[in-house]
């Protein structure tokens, strides 16, 4: 006979029913007693009865708590019907509530004072608490048993979907659900658990939330775990029942939803969350309790030796408290009352849900870091944060409504996603788990799961940032003030608290390090695979920075954000350092490749001469009977051809120093995955550094706002610039170029564009600027403007004093970032211009525009009399930027009217089917590694792409002329430099190339005349003749004539054939500077729609036609083509060597000073073991290898000068 049958025949269920029904009366007697002995006796009798009944029922229920109970339901049904009868469940629920109330009554100070005089051998308080814990265990066991039986009867959840099972819900399921609903057992069990033992984890009583003191012999885990397990079952059960559509499911859904929606169940769920927070070290009482329970805690955790089990309990906490709420909030499952937790006064439910989610995600992140619980959680468990994310971030992953991102809940949802990203990044950085027995075995591969989790979190963060940006754009800047809980500042404050910037920087460094390991010769297969897994990470990280507009500079730590306090690194400051460091390394490789190409060409030419001589010698030797010479000649020819082929490869798409790794022996790697594309790596770096440059410019312009408009009507509302974070890479090419040269956070900076404004529509064409020396003028004094463009009056900006907060660190970060961007832009643009198909409007051109814009903005916002400012401007290598821009303009070719296809780089990328690329599911940063290859565009799209490229050409012409004009008008020293670049080269010619460490005199000699031919060829190219560029072309040619000393007599636009040495011109002749300033002033005035009066007679001739233009269109076209070909064939001018303090000294910014450093270990650049140079104390290195490389690369010659310059500055500061 089965035990359950024997118990049933013995009348156990009937006895349990009688005993449990009598318990409320016993409890009432005990709680109403007025004498000490009466309280003790009646309470003890009630506790004994409760213990006996609870233990007996628990033993009987154990037989039902197995899968075989349902498999053999015919034999189990009578026993289950008796034990789970609604009458017995109701009696159990009432008894549990009564004993819990008795325990709370016994814990009252008045009751304890009353029974203290009785001196009972069994104290009433602990005795009642023990009885409450026992009956709570039994009630929770019954609740859990019912949920498990329901789940077992329904079978596999997947078969319940609409396309699966259509059988009616089994009758036992309906009976069990209705019995649970009628009895109120779920709420009673929760009430008893909250009373004693409370939700806890691994016997940590002092971290629990019990209403009464918990006796030491009580297991605080089992009762709470039973309820949490039952709620976990409902996570899948409730969803499946509602979505499955099975007949008879509705009554079950309603019954279970009402039972689980009891307020006491909600209170237990909240208490479980509070335990999670406490164990994560976020509770104020934790530190106080640690000191009293250190020994107990250590023994418990060490005995458990199962961090994963603890994490599983925490996972149940999160699921029961927040997962079910989010499930009900989305309507996926039904829970009475919406599944919410006890409300907070004055807080809307949606805000409370988001707030609790953010706090709980922070707790999980802290625990996975090893914080809280003495750090043993993270150290003992090989955990993944993805265990908790499906329940914490369910609503984000399923898609919150658009209105949610404009509500007060948005900052909390964003913070929760940032905490989850931090945990995922740190989990990947810790590496794959290793067993103690295999500690000596090398790592056999990357942690694929951790890489996937981090990429998924980055994708979530990118989509969240995209939704936030859309909400900010819909509401406008006025709808998101700093004081608003739903405003942008509130969101960024939460993201800053969660360390979003640091997480993005860390993820970026992990991806960079993986890519470098994969590119190294002899790379292991798992390194290559890891790089492939992390390939989308950089693009997604920069997309988040771009979409949110994170600041590179922010209040320094300890400053409290006081006005005037020097700025420190902001949210994306560390990421900007990493991006700039990467850009410098890639720029060095490109420069080395260009130098190798020049050397290779020279060697090839020399080889051709040797081949000719060898051929003559071969003929002679053949006549003389010598047979060895032809073989030698063939070897030389083969070598020359290989050298030429290598030079061609390097000059097109390869990056020097990043070549394919050598093959690994077959015995080490069986299958090698494809390596990440080096071209994609370069494109990402170009786009990433551009995003950082634009963000830095926006911060500078917020502190140096454009001057007040005083030359005409107020600006049009359509010209308002987008708020920070409105996106940097989404504008069309010409609009982006115009915005970079005009816009500022407070409005368009018309001084950068000659009185134009940024179009309000993203599809508007670049504004047309009134011509200086000709062109069709509009009735208002300016040229006709394309649709959507509005001319805004402006005047040239006057440099302003440097704000106090723009201190040394801000200057160093800005200088370091712009130097890296300028070097990479020039080198990459030169490579792109040499492409066979011509350049596209890709990241190379965009970065050149951004760097030239930075030059113009620095000129506008800097003191013209400061040598330090001149040094910082020269450190940007503006002559190389201008030369690279000229190459792009000369190389751009008009697209055919009916092109069959267009370059992939010129059009937006479409998202691949798997959602891993760009577009809706990919990165918002153009050209990033997360972007998938783009198929050729149909002929119908060719015209739009061609128009976009033409807009970029116009934008490049505008900013090129503006930047060089501002340099010329800034100070006498820079004016002399610009004039020297535009004048014909010296008689002995320019040097081909130079190194960064070359002597300043040699670099200056090589740079003189470097733009003479390129400038005229670029401004005479077809790209500069496009609509909207005529005025700036005229201005640029006027600058060229002024530099040549032209007086308006129609001098030649080409360099003088006599090749006179321009060094005879006085270096500080104020005439050229004044001419440049006058031309810019006239341009700004005409852009404002005003007439500044006739030009001086000495300047009128600067706008006359050139002999090339008067010689006929055919001859002019041939001359332009020949000049353009010469410009494309010429190398970039050599790097300038600015003064020591212009770019060399980095006393505040923590970064390795070696330009080619590729060390990306640690979470940030600051985390590297940086050590100062022992000589100058102004440069830091991450290791001896970088110090040696930098010393040999040029620091040897500048170390003393930097030290002397710093010593002079310190002496000035003391005086």
Structural overview:
- This protein is mainly α.
- Among the domains are: about 250 residues; about 190 residues; about 45 residues, no CATH class.
- It contains 44 helices and six strands.
- The strands form three sheets. Strands 1-2 form a two-stranded antiparallel ribbon. A two-stranded antiparallel sheet has the order 3-4. The protein has a two-stranded antiparallel sheet with strand order 5-6.
- The protein is elongated.
- The termini are far apart.
- About 20% of the residues have low confidence.
Key descriptive features of the protein:
single chain; 1215 residues; mainly alpha; two-stranded antiparallel ribbon; 44 helices; 59% helix; 1% strand; zinc-finger; zinc ion binding; Znf_MYND; zinc
């Amino acid at each position: 006979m089965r035990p359950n049958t024997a118990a049933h025949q013995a009348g156990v269920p009937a006895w349990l029913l009688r005993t449990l029904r009598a318990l409320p009366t016993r409890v009432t007697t005990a709680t109403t007693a007025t004498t000490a002995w009466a309280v003790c006796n009646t309470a003890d009798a009630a506790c004994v009865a409760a213990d006996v009944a609870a233990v007996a029922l628990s033993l009987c229920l154990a037989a039902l708590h197995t899968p075989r109970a349902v498999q053999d339901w015919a034999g189990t049904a009578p026993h289950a019907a008796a034990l789970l009868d609604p009458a017995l469940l109701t009696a159990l629920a009432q008894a549990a509530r009564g004993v819990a109330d008795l325990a709370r009554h016994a814990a009252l100070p008045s009751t304890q004072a009353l029974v203290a005089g009785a001196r009972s051998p069994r104290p009433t308080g602990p005795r009642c608490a023990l009885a409450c814990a026992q009956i709570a265990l039994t009630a929770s066991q019954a609740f859990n048993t019912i949920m498990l039986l329901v789940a077992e009867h329904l079978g596999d959840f997947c078969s319940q979907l609409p396309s699966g099972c259509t059988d009616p819900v089994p009758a036992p399921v309906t009976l069990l659900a209705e019995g649970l609903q009628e009895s109120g057992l779920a709420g009673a069990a929760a009430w008893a658990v909250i009373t004693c033992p409370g939700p806890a984890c691994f016997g940590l009583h002092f971290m629990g939330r019990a209403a009464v003191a918990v006796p030491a012999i009580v297991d605080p885990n089992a009762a709470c775990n039973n309820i949490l397990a039952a709620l976990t079952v409902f996570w899948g059960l409730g969803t499946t029942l509602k979505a499955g559509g099975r007949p008879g499911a509705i009554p079950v859904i309603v019954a279970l939803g009402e039972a689980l929606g009891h307020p006491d169940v909600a209170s237990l769920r909240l208490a479980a969350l509070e335990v999670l927070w406490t164990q994560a070290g976020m509770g104020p009482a934790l530190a106080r309790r640690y000191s009293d329970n250190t020994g107990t805690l250590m023994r418990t955790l060490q005995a458990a030796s199962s961090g994963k089990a603890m994490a599983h309990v925490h996972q149940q906490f999160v699921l029961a408290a927040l997962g079910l709420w989010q499930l009900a909030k989305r309507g996926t499952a039904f829970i009475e009352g919406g599944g919410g937790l006890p409300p907070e006064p004055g807080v809307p439910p949606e805000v409370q849900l988001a707030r609790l989610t953010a706090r709980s995600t922070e707790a999980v992140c802290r625990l996975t870091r090893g914080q809280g619980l003495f750090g043993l959680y993270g150290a003992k468990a090989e955990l993944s944060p993805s265990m908790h994310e499906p329940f914490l971030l369910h609503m984000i992953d399923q898609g919150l409504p658009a209105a949610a991102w404009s509500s007060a809940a948005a900052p909390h949802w964003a913070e929760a996603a940032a905490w989850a990203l931090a945990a995922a990044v740190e989990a990947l950085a810790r590496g794959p788990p290793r067993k103690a027995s295999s500690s000596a075995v090398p790592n056999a591969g990357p942690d694929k799961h951790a890489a996937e989790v981090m990429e998924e979190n980055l994708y979530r963060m990118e989509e969240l940032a995209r939704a936030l940006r859309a909400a900010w754009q819909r509401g406008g800047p006025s709808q998101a003030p700093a004081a608003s809980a739903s405003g942008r500042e509130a969101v960024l404050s939460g993201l800053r608290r969660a360390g979003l910037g640091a997480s993005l920087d860390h993820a970026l460094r992990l991806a960079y390090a993986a890519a470098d390991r994969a590119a190294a010769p002899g790379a292991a297969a798992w390194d290559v695979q890891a790089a492939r897994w992390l390939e989308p990470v950089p693009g997604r990280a920069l997309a988040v920075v771009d979409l949110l507009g994170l600041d590179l500079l922010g209040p320094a730590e300890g400053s409290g954000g006081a006005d005037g306090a020097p700025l420190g690194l902001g949210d994306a400051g560390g990421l900007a350092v990493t991006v700039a460091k990467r850009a410098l390394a890639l720029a060095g490789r490109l420069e080395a490749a260009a130098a190798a190409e020049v050397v290779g060409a020279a060697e090839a030419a020399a080889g051709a001469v040797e081949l000719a001589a060898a051929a003559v010698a071969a003929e002679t030797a053949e006549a003389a009977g010598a047979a060895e010479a032809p073989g030698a000649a063939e070897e030389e020819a083969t070598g020359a051809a290989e050298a030429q082929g290598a030079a061609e490869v390097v000059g097109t798409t390869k990056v020097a120093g990043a070549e394919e790794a050598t093959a690994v022996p077959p015995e080490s790697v069986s299958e090698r995955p494809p390596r990440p594309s080096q071209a994609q790596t370069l494109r990402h770096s170009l786009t990433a550094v551009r995003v950082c440059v634009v963000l830095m410019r926006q911060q500078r312009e917020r502190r140096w706002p454009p001057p007040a408009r005083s030359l005409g009507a107020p600006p049009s509302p359509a010209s308002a610039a987008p708020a920070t974070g409105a996106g940097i890479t989404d504008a069309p090419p010409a609009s982006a170029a115009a915005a970079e040269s005009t816009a500022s956070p407070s409005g368009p900076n018309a001084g950068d564009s000659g009185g134009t404004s940024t179009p309000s529509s993203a599809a508007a064409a670049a504004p047309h600027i009134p011509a200086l020396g000709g062109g069709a003028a509009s009735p208002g004094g300016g040229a006709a403007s394309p649709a959507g463009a509005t001319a805004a009056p402006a005047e040239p900006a006057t440099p302003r004093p440097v704000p106090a907060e723009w201190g040394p660190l801000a200057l160093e970060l800005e200088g370091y970032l712009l130097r890296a961007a300028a070097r990479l832009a020039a080198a990459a643009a030169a490579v792109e211009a040499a492409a066979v198909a011509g350049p596209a409007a890709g990241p190379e051109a965009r970065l050149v525009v951004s760097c030239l814009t930075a030059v113009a903005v620095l000129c506008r916002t800097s003191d013209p009399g400061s040598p330090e400012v001149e040094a910082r401007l020269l450190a940007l290598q503006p002559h190389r930027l201008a030369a690279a821009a000229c190459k792009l303009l000369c190389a751009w070719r008009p697209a055919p009217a009916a092109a069959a296809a267009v370059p992939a780089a010129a059009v937006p990328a479409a998202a691949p089917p798997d959602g891993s690329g760009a577009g809706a599911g990919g990165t918002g940063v153009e050209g990033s590694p997360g972007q998938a290859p783009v198929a050729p565009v149909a002929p119908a799209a060719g015209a739009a792409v061609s128009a976009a490229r033409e807009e970029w050409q116009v934008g490049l012409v505008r900013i090129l002329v503006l930047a060089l004009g501002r340099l010329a008008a800034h100070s006498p020293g820079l004016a002399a430099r610009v004039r020297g670049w535009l004048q014909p080269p010296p008689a002995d010619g320019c040097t081909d190339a130079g190194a960064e460490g070359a002597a300043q005199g040699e670099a200056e000699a090589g740079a003189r005349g470097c733009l003479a031919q390129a400038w005229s060829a670029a401004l005479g190219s077809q790209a500069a003749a496009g609509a909207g560029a005529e005025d700036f072309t005229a201005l640029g040619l006027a600058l060229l004539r002024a530099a040549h000393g032209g007086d308006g007599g129609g001098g030649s636009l080409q360099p003088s054939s006599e090749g006179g040495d321009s060094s005879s011109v006085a270096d500080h002749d104020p005439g050229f500077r004044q001419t440049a300033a006058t031309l810019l002033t006239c341009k700004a005035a005409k852009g404002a729609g005003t007439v500044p009066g006739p030009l001086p007679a000495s300047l009128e001739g600067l706008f006359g036609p050139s002999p090339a233009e008067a010689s006929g269109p055919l001859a002019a076209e041939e001359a332009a083509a020949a000049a353009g070909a010469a410009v494309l064939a010429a190398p970039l001018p050599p790097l300038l060597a600015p003064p020591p303090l212009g770019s060399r000294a980095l006393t505040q910014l923590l970064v390795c000073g070696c330009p080619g450093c590729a060390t990306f270990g640690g979470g940030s650049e600051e985390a590297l073991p940086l050590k100062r140079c022992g000589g100058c104390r102004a440069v830091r290195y991450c290791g001896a290898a970088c110090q040696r490389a930098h010393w040999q690369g040029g620091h040897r010659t500048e170390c003393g000068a930097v030290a002397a310059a710093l010593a002079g500055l310190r002496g000035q500061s003391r005086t």
